[in-house]
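To: structure subgroup
Subject: Chain for Friday's discussion

All,

I'm putting the inputs and outputs inline so they're searchable in the archive.
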Amino acid sequence: MTFLDLVWPVCVAVAILWGLGGALAAAVGLRGLWAVGAAPAFALTIIGGTAVVAGWVGVPWSLLPVAGMTALVGGAILLIRRRVDGGIALARRPRRRPDWWLVAALAAAAVITIVRVAQIIQAPDHISQTFDNIFHLNGVRFILDEGNASSLRLGYMTSPDGSLPFYPAAWHALVSLTVQLSGASIPVAVNAVVMVVAAVVWPVAVVLLARALFGRHPVLTVGAALLAVSLPTFPLLPMDYGVLYPFQLGLAVLPVALAATLRVLSIVPQRDPAGLWWWLLILLGAIPGMALGHPGAFVAWLALTVPMAIVFTVDRWRVSTTVKGRLLVAAGVIAYLGIGVVLVRILRPPLEARLWPTQMSVPEAAWQVLSASTWYLAPAFVAAVAILAGAVWAVIDRTRPAIVALGMWVVGAVLFITVASLPFGDLRDLLTGSWYNNLPRLAAILAIASVPLGAYGIVRTWVAVAALPPLRRAAGSLPRAARVTVAAVLAVLLGLSMQGLAVQRAVDWAKPLYLLYPGSPLLTSDEYALLQRVPEHVPEGVAIAGSPWTGASLASAISGRDVLMPHTLMQISDELETINDGLDSARPGGTVCRAVADLDVGFVLDFGTQEVHPGTHPFPGLDDLADSDAVRLVDSEGDKRLYEIVACG
């Protein structure tokens, strides 16, 4: 395949996100960057919410119920707008001329990220050769086969008894729609969605946040867009570590929720006539999709809005001159803290999933924060200078937006230092347990918190330098076209200087995880080739046995056939255990054959002993099939084999 094969599914993913979300943004009355930035968040909310509702009422999963729900919600919003002056006024803002600096900055960010993602995946149908990807790929197939994309249903793939009653499925639902509408394979659709999220959703959202804080200055816009693609811990790290595709999606729309929160709390002067309740509706339109993308993104929103809550509380306290008013402020603070603690405890994963250890000393973690070298250990010097400049200017200026931007970065830095190095286990678990006490996740959140502050550092420094008398006189003597040309050249030089060792190291570290070769850790080139031919031998509805640790379970995602074990971490029923322990010695009428009949098993994949993680997870009944009379070889690629079960008739 060539990357041209990725164009159509990318277009389909774009159409889904901005078609659905754009309709809702228009219904709300958003225009311009707000409409473009908020559309994916709205789309995720409508996709994730519709999936749950459709699952309840038994409507098969497809674009049809999603489009119907979009029309229903959009129509309800339009009816409300007829009765709410704020909503109508929001749509009646005077039109502005096109912001070509914004268009150029976002286009450059998209091109840079597309190139980086293409360098990592190397081919449209390559998969991430990582442990978590077994669940993600087969989760998409489970949705397509079940006709149910509900977050209340996806967990049944590995826990048929319902012991995993909730698993955030918005990412899997989005990929499944992309598969249905584009006709692409699951691996290609996954890469298409990842490319759209990393190259379009994320830069637009974080530029929206920066402009919501500090205005529309072209230098701010360009700086935010360049920083968005120059901090390797987001969006590239979730493609490397994990793999964390749902977390990447949730964090990509997080800036939209942060920007809406700014408006709800009136942190920035209101340029729009829309009132509090209308901005609250916009915020509520973004949060569910973000949370159904990944709850860790929702907890990140809780953490990064703490500075906003503090600024809001201080403002309310100052303007509340009566005892009653200040008691209300105090009660609000107590309620805010109480609700936050409850939500953090509810959304925290089980203890056994939060046992990641510290990895460095406190000074080492602090240096990584200051040098923007988190995780990859290669300093992003230009970005780091911009971020530190933003911190200095925030202290000097002490405006509310600057304080909030600095506060978000401080929160991100404290969380990263805590998870990386804090020796106090209980306190560490309290602060970062919601993200599994896992360093890469906090590194990604820190990158998101860094972009607005870094963009502020760039624009504030630019304004200060441009105000120097010699430069001001020189600029005044140049025609406008010359000034624009100089600014464009400086922007290009800034962008090139940011694409340095740190970003290249992120690409270099991630690339091996997408290589397809005879020794690939999850699915080798021979195994992938054999899975392409499995549909020629295995009828639909017939299940395949095989060790999920060796990649055999990906017959579900790649071949479109049922497998007994779609993931490594799943419930093993008595019948499944009987097959795993005794298939090679199956005899007609025996317990193994009864289990084979009950589970509709007809074939076995033998992918050898190499596992995705170095280790050994033996299944005695599947280990010696080459010498067993219970099976017959039907296809092979190298030493990878597909057997048909013949002992049971």
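Points worth raising on Friday:
DSSP finds 27 helices and four strands in the chain.
The beta strands are 543-545, 601-606, 631-637, 640-645.

D.
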